Amino acid sequence: MRVLFFTPPARVHIFAQVPMAWALRAAGHEVHVANRPNMMDDVTRAGLAAVPVGPPFDPGAYIREEKQESLPWESWQEVLEFAELRPERLTYDYMHAVHTAWTLVFQGISPPEVMDDLVGFARAWRPDLVVWDTLAYAGPVAARACGAAHARLMFGLDVIGRMRERYLDAVRRRPAELREDPLEEWLGPVLERYGCAFGEDMVMGQWTVDPLPSSMRLAVDHHYVPVRHVPYHGPATVPGWLREPPVRRRVCLTLGLSVREVLGGDRVSIGDLLEAVADLDAEVVATLNADQLAGVSRVPDNVRVVDFVPLNELLPSCSAIIHQGGFGTLQAALTHGIPQVVLPPRAGDWDSRIWARRVQDAGAGLSVPDARKVTAGEVRDMLARVLGEPSFAAGAARLRTEMLGTPAPRDVVPVLEQLTALGRS
């Protein structure tokens, strides 16, 4: 069969789909990956066929810098969150505001030019299955327009599905003349333009491929296909120093690629983090680039700074990791059973704070509510506990065992073949 993948224009989102794409390719299926023209190198370097759609993507024009003086201290991303789980906050008015605000974000990820190009390619190539990222709604639109089956491939927790259930239930309780749904109001006319009609599968997929451990997943009444997360961090060379066993405990410090490339800068002080590990009896490998180090006056002697090193190669030699709770980083840590200190940002974090709490609740690490308010001493104390108390390594090992018990991408291919046969129109 033919399978078309589509993600937002960000490397980490593309990387998350590569293992599933290659599992299908290795099973003999044709695979294409569509994205913005400036993301084509990231697709082709993964050995996959790339299809450019829409104009090049400019992160600076899409997400405003939080440091701009014109913005209030609390941006709307901090106030209106799909990741809100507290029942007392989930009123109709709040959930409606969240759907309204984030629909504008989704429109920026899948603007009309992208929609038209992706639908045009899908109608010409005729895929049997479209696999789309949970934020990339041009994917299900293209699938509906060409008659393909379609499924989400999750990037993180299903916070949309979780809130969507409660929101639609609240909408149904309102008078008929007051029932509104911003996502339907956007996607409905878009689909009509291609001769199609809106359905809830446009938001949730006909089914969802989910690489999360079942114990970490949010409870949503939906068809999930579990798959083991396989870390992929792009093409890289293993450096010579990493081929030698560390002479003392090794700690990874990373703030992720999304923060660098899309979200407009770090949400935590680099200087404070380096100060926190300065007196640690360990080798700290910090994946920081020149821009991130620009305001740092001193790099401690026990810190090795590298612009990039594949986490899948680095983490097996590590005793702990400090990070901001990004999906790829956290999943890589779970894959290798590494205890974690999670410092989630407050603004625009999507699901990082939920991840952080769940890692802590599972006994696999420690976290803070807001990384912008944590001190170097607090980070040092958390890291000392994670390294010194065996319970954290045991908790991380339990999650790794759970992940290893989940079907690998190649084992999921027959399931996708069966569901595609049923889902095509």
Automatic annotation (TrEMBL):
<keyword id="KW-0808">Transferase</keyword>
<dbReference type="InterPro" id="IPR002213">
    <property type="entry name" value="UDP_glucos_trans"/>
</dbReference>
<feature type="domain" description="Erythromycin biosynthesis protein CIII-like N-terminal">
    <location>
        <begin position="22"/>
        <end position="256"/>
    </location>
</feature>
<dbReference type="InterPro" id="IPR048284">
    <property type="entry name" value="EryCIII-like_N"/>
</dbReference>
<keyword id="KW-0328">Glycosyltransferase</keyword>
<dbReference type="Pfam" id="PF06722">
    <property type="entry name" value="EryCIII-like_C"/>
</dbReference>
<dbReference type="InterPro" id="IPR010610">
    <property type="entry name" value="EryCIII-like_C"/>
</dbReference>
<feature type="domain" description="Erythromycin biosynthesis protein CIII-like C-terminal">
    <location>
        <begin position="273"/>
        <end position="419"/>
    </location>
</feature>
<comment type="similarity">
    <text>Belongs to the glycosyltransferase 28 family.</text>
</comment>
<dbReference type="InterPro" id="IPR050426">
    <property type="entry name" value="Glycosyltransferase_28"/>
</dbReference>
<dbReference type="Pfam" id="PF21036">
    <property type="entry name" value="EryCIII-like_N"/>
</dbReference>
<protein>
    <submittedName>
        <fullName>DUF1205 domain-containing protein</fullName>
    </submittedName>
</protein>
<keyword id="KW-0045">Antibiotic biosynthesis</keyword>
<dbReference type="InterPro" id="IPR030953">
    <property type="entry name" value="Glycosyl_450act"/>
</dbReference>
